[in-house]
Amino acid sequence: MLTTGIIVIIVIQQRRLFNIQQKNLEALAESEQRYRRLVNFSPFPMAVLIEGCFKYVNDAGAKLFGVLSPEELIDKPIADFGKTAFYEHAKDRIQQFLNDPRDMAFIEEKFVRNDGQIIDIEVTAIPITYDGMDAVQVVIRDITERKRSESELIAAKERAEQSDRLKDAFIANISHEIRTPLNVILGYSSLIMAEMADRVTADEQTFFESIERGGQRLMRTVEHILNISSIQAGTFELHPERLDVNVRVEKLVQDLRSIATEKGLHLETIDEYQGAIIIADRYCLDQALTNLIDNALKFTNRGGVTIRVYKQDRRVCIEVKDTGIGISAEYLPKVFNVFSQEIIGYTRPFEGLGLGLALTKRYVEFNQGSITVKSRKGQGTTFTLRFLSATVPETIQTELPLIHEELADRPASEEGERSSARTILVVEDDEQTQEYMRVLLKKEFTIKVATSGSEAWDILSQNGIDLILMDLSLRGDEDGLHLTRRIRENLSFHTVPIIAITAHAFPDDKQKSLAAGCNRYLSKPFQIEELRALLQELLHIPIKE
Hints:
Layout: H1 2-40, E1 46-50, E2 53-57, H2 59-64, H3 86-99, E3 105-112, E4 118-130, E5 133-142, H4 144-195, H5 202-233, E6 240-244, H6 245-263, E7 266-271, E8 277-281, H7 282-298, E9 304-312, E10 315-322, H8 356-366, E11 370-376, E12 380-388, E13 423-427, H9 431-441, E14 446-450, H10 453-462, E15 467-470, H11 480-489, E16 498-502, H12 507-516, E17 520-523, H13 528-539
Parallel strand pairs: 7-9, 13-14, 13-15, 15-16, 16-17
Antiparallel strand pairs: 1-2, 1-5, 3-4, 4-5, 6-8, 9-10, 10-12, 11-12
């Protein structure tokens, strides 16, 4: 009985084990069938390869290789279907995978279908065991559309970059081509006006004033276009320094006072914060304030403009307040938009491109400042700039230093009365500008002219040159910056004063000129008085009026 019972128990256990195994086999079969269905109906072509021959292909794979059914591919070499080297590449990657299982074959190839269509494919290949043999499972994706989209995006990016380069070059060239002749026009106008000062009537005097105003209007337009282009291209450079706000305001007010006088307006400053020091880019601050004061004068017909400097917490505030036409509530939110103007069309009463305030906002924000505006139509407008206050040092340097300080220390006694013997080298490629510079300076100096770097070097080597007026654009293979650096490297000429006089007037052109070794920088068109002051400063001689 005991033996019979043991046998019964063993039989029961075997049946249970059999049932478990049967269920496992059924589950495995079900899992395999489910996997096969997933693979068969996958939208991605899949195949199993042994020694380069198909052992399994799903329906998407058959379609990719250009056959009607997967069976047509079984046991046939992959090389016979789709002229591609991806399998050879895959074998190399598979060997890498065997050496380092963390890796995986991942290949992109051009694939030629049997119907002749060329497509881009992405192949993932991994080693597996199939029917007890080493095999390769590949998953293929048609990435033709993705590649086409990527190519289109790259092409679009390249076109955009090329367009930006062309735009920047165009604007720079336009600036150069406008500034150069404008320098000659305004320069000769000033000379003629000075020669005929005692012979012209009041009416004729307005002719010269009109030429001057028209030239300055054209220059403001060009400068605004240059700066907005530089800002949008991301090439606008900042050079922060300690600035005395009251000094800057007073200087700009003096420059613009003639406009206020001509319109019968008062223009005054109120200094409520002595020692108002900020750290900012001088050009940005000057341009922002000039735009605001100029706008205030332009849009004011009665009363005047007041510029107030005051302190608010730790901030230096600059308020520009006018009694002009004001800004409507509807337009006020758009006042800092590029190319935006409240009145447009043929009847607009004020000139301009609508760039001044847009640039002003950017100038201020570049220097960690803010700008706000209050206005009521018919009652005037108030703009307020706010900058973080800086600690006041014992001495404040508000002017750019000389690049070669030894020139500033040259005793005037060494020069005596030799002004008539001074020789100036004008390095300039524009013939009209060459002639203008001769006319302007021939009474006080001996003038030598060079149109290229090689000509300038020859003149330097053969003549005693006291000062160089250097254009940046020159004929030949050498520009003015390179020539300046070459001069500074030569011990025979490295102390000769150099003034850059150029129509290249982007904000960084000045810094490039000074960095190359120029002592001063003037952008065309320049005022005759500016040049005379620089000559007097660098040569330490009185300049005849």
